[in-house]
Structure formats: structure tokens, C-alpha cells
Amino acid sequence: xxxxxxxxxxxxxxxxxxxxxxxxxxxxxxxxxxxxxxxxxxxxxxxxxxxxxxxxxxxxxxxxxxxxxxxxxxxxxxxxxxxxxxxxxxxxxxxxxxxxxxxxxxxxxxxxxxxxxxxxxxxxxxxxxxxxxxxxxxxxxxxxxxxxxxxxxxxxxxxx
Length: 160
What we know:
- The chain has 8 helices and no strands.
- The protein has helices at 38-47, 52-61, 65-73, 77-85, 92-112, 115-122, 134-137, 141-155.
């Protein structure tokens, strides 16, 4: 019996209706504005990102809460649920990760047209990433940066 990769269970199989994040929940209105600027992410992360934003991110991305909690943030889902009940903000590192992934998804959806197409691309080896599966890179901040750089290359047709 072979062990199933953790990324194979990352995308939720149950489609969820996407509800646009309100201004308080959203980092920015479009992927091209301040949402992915490092200074914005650092200052917002330091000032505190609501733990509720994690749950909005799960709905927005279509990734499972379990995968986002354990593989992406390195926490248990139960811990994040407790944070939400206690209105405890995420740590600056956790908040930074959530903001960066949110910005990445905004850019990916802008380029691929919808979340499902972007999630499909995330799950397949990418030529511009040396054949690595983008989803497997998302557990590290530098990995998110690499995937964002690849998206920009795709956007401008510089993938070969």
C-alpha cells in the first residue's frame, strides 16, 4: 500500500460558493495593487491578522481547512478553531503566510480565469519551476514567492 501525498488531499472535493471577501477581510481589490507588496504584508502581519481570515482563505482557495492548517501553517485545525473562538489573531508569521497565499490566489485566478483552473495548475508539475508541483512549494514563504514569479512569467508569456 503506497502512502498518498499530502497534496493530493489539499483541494476540497466539495465545491463551495465563493463569497467575495469584504474590505476588512480582503488584502486589496485586485492582484495588481498593494496586496503583494512586501511592506504591506509586513505591516499588516505585525499589526495582527484575524484568525477568522484563515477560514475565509480556505473558502476562497478551495483548499481544505485541514491541509491549510497542517501542511501550510503547521498548526492543527483544532488550534485555529480555538484561536477563532477566542478572537486570537494569527502570529505575524502565520498572518504573513495567509496574506501571501491570498495574494497568490488573486493573481492565479486573474491569470487562469477561475479558481478550479488555477487549482488544477497548482497540482501539476510546472516547467518553469523545474518540474516541481507548485502546491508542494506553498508551505514555505520562498515557495510562495517562486510560484508568484512563475505566474508573472506566465502572464507575460515568458514561460519557455
